[in-house]
Amino acid sequence: MSLKGRVTVVTGGARGIGLALARGAAELGSDIAVIDVLEKPSEAFGDFEKELGVRARYYRFVPLSGTSVTDPTGLTGSFETIVKDFGQIDNCVTAAGIVHDKPFLDTTWEEGAHILEVNVMGTMMSAQLAAKQMRAQKTGGSIVMIASVSAGTALQTQRLNIYAASKGAVKSLCVQLAVELAPLGIRVNTVSPGFIATEMTKGLAVTRPELLAVFKSPPLGRIGDRADLKGVVGYLLSDAAAYTTGTDVLVTGGVHAGLL
């Protein structure tokens, strides 16, 4: 499961799940390029070079339109700069995404469109740009897209309607890309987390305190930690998963099993 000598791009890696996955790849020896819209990444990002001895650079994505985090021209420029700086792209983790917890009957067209634009189109464009570089290199590679347990299950306590639809689209995109990109030696898989402690889930717990009990409801008895995802993603990025593509890995503490 070594990633030494490789370059891994992580979208949405300034904090939260994306940051944890970037660290996981760095712990396996990969150089790291993080793209995010935040002005600067978490202080923990600086530990990658200091503690792990890998190259790590942060690329703040400022949409040219000023409104959309999926501006294709700006995103293309970010990937081009990464190639100039690192010389290659071997892996890509699409962790950029936003959550929407609101009753379906109150959800507006604009809110739904924004969720789909970020979670689906942002994922598609990032995967495409990474795959184009991998094709040019003729080296193959691995793309891991972050989906969600909500793509296949529903909880009465959460109103994840359009968010769940967006993550279902990510899972379907994975299956299609896995077949289409296989001749290029590019593997594509998804990871579907359950309840994971992040800045977003903390925000939900503040606005909806009744969810605190829900977050402790998985059969394993706790909300997941971001580090719980590192091993799975590291495996999928590495040659240990050389024969794994088109697969969704559920990391939910048993939530999905309890809902079957």
UniProtKB/TrEMBL annotation:
GO MF annotation: an example: oxidoreductase activity, acting on the CH-OH group of donors, NAD or NADP as acceptor
InterPro entries: NAD(P)-bd_dom_sf (IPR036291), Sc_DH/Rdtase_CS (IPR020904), SDR_fam (IPR002347)
PROSITE patterns recorded: ADH_SHORT
The protein, known as: 3-oxoacyl-[acyl-carrier protein] reductase
Pfam families assigned: adh_short_C2
Keywords, alphabetical: NADP, Oxidoreductase
Record family assignment: Belongs to the short-chain dehydrogenases/reductases (SDR) family.
